[in-house]
Amino acid sequence: MSALIEAKGVTKRYGSFTALDDVTLTLSDSEPSMTAVAGESGSGKTTLARMMLGFIDPTEGSVEYRGKNIATMSASEKRAFRREVQPVFQDPFEVFNPFYRIDNVLTTPVKRFRLADTDAKAQALIEDALERVGLRPQDTLGRFPHELSGGQRQRVMVARAVLLRPKMIVADEPVSMVDASLRATILDELRTLNRELGISIVYTQTQSLRDFDATMRQLVIDPSQPAESRRFQLAHQLAALALAREIAAVVETSPLRTAAARQLLHVGLANYAAGAVLMPYAPFRASARAVRHDIDRLRMDYGVSFEQACHRLSTLQRPGARGIPMFFCRVDMAGNITKRHSATRLQFARFGGACPLWIVHEAAAIPDRILFQLAETPDGLPDPRHELVVGVVRAHGAAARTGRLRRRAL
Which residues of 239-262 are buried (b: 16+ CB within 10 A; e: fewer)? Predict the structure, then answer.
C-alpha cells in the first residue's frame, strides 16, 4: 500500500518546550479518506497540520509526500506539492487581506497555476467552486471580507482549495471559529468533496463541547465552558436521549433534503427541549410577566445565558397561555443573521443581512450593554401591515445577541 502522506515519528521542539512528541500518521494513496485529528487545546494539532503542509520542519522525524521528504523537495517538486496539498486555516478572517475584495483570493490561484486560458473560463471555475461549498456567487463575489460572516469566509477558503482540484486538504480546526449551527454544514460539505471529487481530507478539532459515549453511557462536557453553557449541554443530551424517537420522527417526516439540514433540525429540536428543561413553560412565563421581561433578571433567576433566555421567550406561544410575541435573532459583526426564532416555524439562516441603521452594529462595538430602538418594519407576520418594534440589543464579546419585542401598530 503506497502512502499519500506519511508523518514518521515527528517531534517539534521550540527551545525546551515540546509542542509535538513522536507522532506517526499515514494516509493511503489507494482511495480518498477523511481523517480527524482530535485533542485538547495545546496538544499539538496545529503543529502537526503545519508540518503536513510543509510550513515548518520537524525537529525529529520526517514528513513524506508520495515517498519524498517535504523538507528536501526541489523547487519544482515543492510547486507540485503546493498545488496538490491545500490548506484551510483556523481563522477565516486573518487569511484575507482586508483591502482586497473576496475575488482576489480566488483569482490568484487561477492565475498562478494557469488553471484557465480565458477570463470566462476562470469565472466559470470560480463560480463552480463557490457553488460546491454552498455559496451563491452573486452574493459572494465583489464583497470585502468584513461583509461576510465567519461561515461564509471559511467556505470561500474551502472553495479556493477546491479550485486547484488537490489530492488532499489539510484543514486546521475549520469550524472552531464558526457559529455552532453551521459547523455540521461545513463538515458535511467537506465530506461531499471527499466523496465526489476524491479529495482526502485531514482536519483537526478540539475536544467538542459535549461528547457522549452511547456504549459506556458516559457524558463528558468541556469544563472550560461557562456554568450556564455546561447546564445547557447536559439538558441537551438528556433531551436527545429521552426524546430520541419523537425527534427522529419529526426529522424523518420533514421535507428537508440534505443531511446537513436534517442534522440542524435534529439539533434545533433537542435545543428547544433543553430550553424547556431549564426554563419550564408556565413558571418561566409567569416570571417573565412578573419582571416585565427583564432579560437579565430572567437569566440570573434561571441560571441561563442571555441568549438562552431570549430564545426561550420567543417560544412562549402555547394556545391558551401565550406570552408576548418575541422575535429573537443572533447577528454577527458583519450584520449576517446566523440564528433567528419567533412564534413561527423553526428557522436557521445561512445567509442574511441587516439595515445599516439597525443599532445592532453599535452593540457589537461595545459589549455587555443593552440598547433599545424603535423601528418600523413590514415583516408580514401576522399580516403585511407595518408594525412597531421595540428592540432590545445586547452584545457579549465579539457576538451580538438580539431579542426583539413586537407589538401591533395602532
Answer: bbeebeeebeeebeeeeeeeebbb
Question: DSSP label at 207?
Answer: P
Per-residue pLDDT at 26? 92
Contact 298, 288 (CB under 8 A): yes
Q: Is residue 355 part of a domain?
A: no
How confident is the model at residue 378, as a pLDDT?
Answer: 52
**Residue 186 sits in the same domain as residue 224:** no
Pairing of strands 317-318, 85-88: unpaired
Show Cβ contacts of residue 249 under 8 Å, excluding neighbours closer than 6 positions.
none
Contact predicate 376/346, CB 8 Å: no
Residue 324 lies in a domain: no
Residue 68 and residue 27: Cα distance in Å, rounded?
14
Domain boundary among 156, 176, 206: 206
Residue 190 has pLDDT above 90, yes or no: no
Helix 150-163 / helix 119-132 crossing angle, nearest 10 deg:
130
| Same-domain status, 118 and 173 | yes
Cell of 76: 519544482
Say if 161 falls within a structural domain.
yes
Strands 200-206 and 168-171 turn out to be parallel
* Domain tally, the chain: 2
Q: How confident is the model at residue 90 (pLDDT cuts 50, 70, 90)?
A: confident
Structural domain range at position 166 = 3-206
Same domain, 96 and 214: no
CA atoms within a 13 Å half-sphere pointing along the CA-CB vector of 111: 7
**Is residue 340 included in any domain, yes or no?**
no
Q: What are phi and psi of 233, to 5 degrees?
A: -60, -40
Mean pLDDT of 38-52: 86
Backbone angles phi, psi at 268, to 5 degrees: -60, -40
Same domain? For 247 and 186 the reply is: no
| pTM of this prediction exceeds 0.90 | no
Instruction: For 205-216, write each residue's pLDDT tens digit.
Output: 776 677 776 666
Same domain membership, residue 222 and residue 152: no
Domain boundary among 230, 246, 274: 274
Pairing of strands 370-377, 387-396: antiparallel
Residue 389 has pLDDT above 60, yes or no: no
Confidence band, pLDDT 50/70/90 cuts, at residue 179: low
Q: How far apart are the C-alpha atoms of 311 and 329, rounded to whole Å?
A: 8
* Residues 214, 168 within the same domain: no
What cell numbers appear for 329 in the block?
435573532
pLDDT at 231: 93
